[in-house]
Structures are given as structure tokens and as C-alpha cells.
Amino acid sequence: MPRIIVVGAGIVGASVAYHAARAGAVVTLVDAGRPGAGVTADSFAWIGASGVRTGRAAALRLTATQEYHRLEAELPGLPVTWSGSLSWGTTDSAPEAGPGQEIVDAATAATLEPALRQPPRWAVWAPGDGCVDPVGVTERLVAGARAHGAQVHPDTPVTAVRRDAAGRVVGVETAAGPLSGTTVVLAAGVATAALAAPLGVRVPVDPSPATLSRLRAPAGLVRTVVNTPDFDLRQVAPDRLVAAADSPERTLAAVPSTFRGAANVELLSTRVRLRPMPADGEPIVGPVAEVPGLYVAVLHSAVTLAAAVGRLVARELVDGAVAPMLAGCRLDRF
SS3 of 318, please? Predict the structure, then answer.
């Protein structure tokens, strides 16, 4: 069985470690911090396969929700909520429905979100969509990996990928000493490019700022994942909302103007994280031909695709099978 070192314990790395360990590999998961404490912690964490039509990873994205349903069955208690999502824009004309979507009128929108002040004339309802607690899911994946024998090294920065005289990967150097393995998976988000560069490998991924705000709000104010031109919004606890939007001030003004009973919504915190964004916006997942034993897994949207990508990467590494859904995601396309 392969000895796999996964660098990065965000939700993607944790998923790869869990699925690979479950498939029988000898797995070591190593991270500079705590599992899920990086950009994963401040993800909006909307899980949706609906509406996907184009792109290199279109087929992969279409599997997102079913892969999370599978993961729920494997890891009971996984913190996933299947609320559906409701989206609308500024146009008066009816939008086009994609896979898994239906167009609803104002009356139906008001039924789905009773606190709306002025329901949109048309909205896109995706009943199969959901959301997750991204840190909770990551921790559950790490626990699942441990249960299948994985070794986990938090608070252990990786400083370099180690190779032998023939150029093949033999492990990593860390602040606590070397770790040995026959395969190294770089799932370190924005740090992936810096770890690959000394090997002569260019991974075209840049930091992309993402703002997440947490608000205090009345219980039950928002029932679905709401997507508008002003914000992405969802309820995460009886008196808590999270919002993804560029401007916290705009969000704080837009929530009361969108929902009745929201006059006293309070901004609790705002964090800006640098999510990894591949140059073309599509996942970069696969082996690196120039460096035998090196594998890259860096993507957006990481939370949405983590369940699917983890399973497929493990299949490629452990079984030696080529996953057709990852064919368009290889690094050599650049």
C-alpha cells in the first residue's frame, strides 16, 4: 500500500486523508496549524450541485450534493443542513433554470422565506442544496482518518518536499523533522505554489480575498441559503447569521431592508481570508509528471467539492485508477 503524506488539513486535505486511509493507505496528515483553522474556517460553505452547466469541473460539481449524502452515511453526525437555496437578481424577466433548479414566483418565494419584505417576482429555487459547518466537517474527516490509522501532525509547518537522487518524492521536511512517504499530496491552499516552486513546478494559484461576516439576528429569520446581489446569507444558529459579501456595512444595511424583523441585526465580526483561486477558476487536481510521487489538490470551491475530490484522489492514489471526472482538472493544462 502507498505511504501518503497529505500537506494541508483544510477540508480538502482532510477529505483526501480520510478517503485514502479508509481505502487502506498508510496516511500522514500534516498542517502548519489546526485542522480546519485556515481559510476553511471562514468559508460560507454552501453545498450546491444545482445550475452547473459548463466548465472543466462541471461533471464534478454536479456530484457535490450526492457525495455529501454519501459522506453523511459513512460519518454519522456530519454537520450538514439540507435547506435548499433561493437566489434572485435585479431583472424582472424570469431566469433560466439549470439542473436541479426550478423557477418560482413571488408567492412561492414568500412561502420559502416568510420574513421577506418584498419577495422577488421570480427566484431560482434549488431544493437539493445545503450547507455545512466547515470546521465541524473537517474535524469529523480528520477523526475518520485517525480511525483508519492515519497519523495527524497539527502545528507542524512543512518547509520542503524531499526527493531522492533520481528525483522521486520520498517525503517532506517539517519544522519538527522529516516525514517519509512515497507520495506527497499538496493540499495547502495558497501555500501550495510556494511548496511546489523549489521543485521547478509552477502551480498557478493566487490568493483571492473572501469576506465573511457573522451577525446576531432573530431566530428563524432566514430558512434557506439566500443568494442576492447584496449577499449570500444563511442562518447558522438560532440567533446567528453568516453573510458572504464584499462590504460588511452594505450587508448590515441590506439585511433589514430585505427581511422583516431584522431592524436590530448586529454585526459581530468580519474576517477576510485569502482563499486559493486557480488562474482559470477551475480545480487543479492530479499527479505532477515532472516530479514522480507529487500530487496537487488545490481548488475553488473547496468546501463544495471536498467530498467528491477526496474520494476521487484516494481512488487514483490507492487503486491506481484514473478518475474521468478529474481529466479536465490536471495541472498540465496550463
Answer: helix
